[in-house]
């Protein structure tokens, strides 16, 4: 969808607040989906590929949180 087809608030502050809210929502959705995938036995490379990032990036972003949540993480073989 071209940017000009996206309805946006008229006030820049409102538009920027909407962007920030969408980013927070996307982060929460990513956290939940990554945790679900790891609990289902997915590997870091599988999660990374699905997200379109490197294995290292997804591990760096999510490993500590997942460990704290009690998720058993797969080791590389």
Secondary-structure topology with pairs:
Elements: H1 12-39, H2 44-51, H3 55-68
Helix pairs in contact: 2-3
Description of the molecule:
The structure is a single chain. With 77 residues, the chain is mainly alpha-helical. It contains three helices and no strands. It has helices at residues 12-39, 44-51, 55-68. The chain is elongated and about 50 Å long. The termini are far apart. The relative contact order is 0.11.
Reading the helices and strands in chain order gives HHH
Task: Give the quaternary arrangement of the chains.
Answer: single chain
Helical stretch count? 3
Total strands: 0
Using the CA coordinates, give the radius of gyration: 16 Å
Label the structural class.
mainly alpha
Q: Stretches where pLDDT falls below 50 for ≥5 residues?
A: none
